[in-house]
Amino acid sequence: MTKHLTFPALIAGLLLAASVAAAPALSDKVPANPNLKTGKLDNGLSYYIERNAKPAQRVELRLVINAGSVSEDDDQRGMAHLLEHMAFNGSKHFKKHELIAYLQSIGVRFGADLNASTGFDATIYMLPIPTDKPANLEQGMTVLEDWAHGLTLSDKDIDDERQIVLQEKRMHAGYGQRSTEAMLPKLTNGSRYKDRLPIGTEDSILNAKPEALRRFYADWYRPDLMAVIMVGDVDPEQAEKMIKRHFAGLSMPANPRPRPTYTPAPLATPDALVFLDKEAPANNVLLYYSTFARKPPETVGEFRDALVRQLFSQLMKMRFGRLTQVAEPPFLGGGAGENAVPFGVNQFGFTAAAAVGKAGVNAAIDALVQENMRARQFGFPSNDFDVAKQNMLAGYEYNASSRATRDSAIVLGPYIRHFLAGGAIPGADQENAYAKTLLPTITLDEVNAYAKSMIPATAPKLVLYFAHNNSVPAGQTAPTGSELLARAEAAAKLPVTKPEEKALPANLMSYKPEPGTVINQTEDKTLGVTTLTLSNGVKVMLKPTDFSKDKVLMLAVRPGGQNAFPLSEKSTVRFASAVQNAMGVGSYTPADLQRVLAGKAVSFSAQLNLYADQLSGSSRSEDIESMLQLNYLSVTSPRRDENLFRSFITRSAESVRNRSAMPEMRFTEARMKTVFGNHPQLDLPPLPQDFEKLNLDRTLNLLCTRMSSAKGMTYLFVGDFDIEKLKPLLATYVATLPVSDLPLTYRDAGIRQVPGVLRQEVKAGVEQKSLVTFDFGGDVQYVYAESWPLSLLADVLNLRITDELREKQKLIYSGGASVRYEKIPRGSYAVAISLPTSPQNVEKVEAAVWAEIERLQAEGPTVEDLNKVKQARLQSYRRALREDGYWMNYLRQGVLEDKDPHEILKVEQRINSVGAEDIKAAAKRFLDRKNHVEMVLKPEEAN
Question: Is the pLDDT of residue 941 over 70?
Answer without folding.
Answer: yes
